[in-house]
Write a sequence for this structure.
């Protein structure tokens, strides 16, 4: 049996008073989402983990979202689990395109790989994480594929060359000769 929403509402009120830099709190059916200022991320994570009443000791996931139309383009979400309370919360913060966010590596050892994934897919830098290497894409990969401005076809074509017996990277060529363009509107009479 899960936590009832009334308990989540009470917990959300407590968290909004305990945590620093809270911008908004939203209570969903089975979790709480808290948006905070990025400068309080590490401190709030320590509070959640070390509080004897809360015990959010598990960092389950970190993921990013890209909103190119916003001033703070990237939204970084942290999913925490309290086995003591049986509750999940999401701490959410936003960063500009060429800014970074503090790493949770000093607080949660599991954040290292998760931050690498976000960096690899979106290009968001995590300060104090000295191991931001490619993890989901190839080391020679150019760009960050989950950004909304990343071309759908990519920049390079990857194929295996039987003569060279290795993977070959070539600039992507998009030929137009076989494409047929119909510029007529489907609503106009033929």
């Amino acid at each position: 049996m899960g936590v009832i929403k009334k308990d989540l509402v009470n917990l959300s009120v407590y968290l909004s008073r305990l945590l620093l830099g809270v911008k908004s709190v939203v209570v969903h059916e089975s979790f709480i989402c808290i948006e905070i200022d990025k400068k309080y991320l590490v401190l709030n994570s320590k509070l959640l983990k070390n509080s004897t009443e809360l015990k959010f000791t598990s960092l389950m996931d970190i993921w990013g979202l890209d909103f190119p139309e916003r001033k703070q383009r990237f939204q970084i979400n942290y999913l925490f689990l309290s086995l003591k309370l049986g509750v999940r919360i999401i701490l959410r913060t936003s960063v500009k395109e060429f800014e970074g966010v503090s790493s949770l590596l000093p607080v949660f050892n599991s954040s290292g790989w998760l931050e690498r994934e976000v960096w690899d897919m979106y290009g968001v830098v995590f300060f104090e994480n000295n191991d931001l290497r490619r993890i989901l894409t190839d080391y020679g990969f150019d760009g960050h594929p989950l950004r909304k401005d990343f071309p759908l076809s990519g920049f390079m074509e990857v194929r295996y060359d039987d003569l060279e017996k290795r993977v070959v990277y070539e600039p992507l060529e998009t030929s137009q000769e076989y494409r047929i363009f119909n510029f007529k509107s489907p609503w106009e009479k033929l």
Notes: Residues 107 and 124 are 19 Å apart (CA to CA).
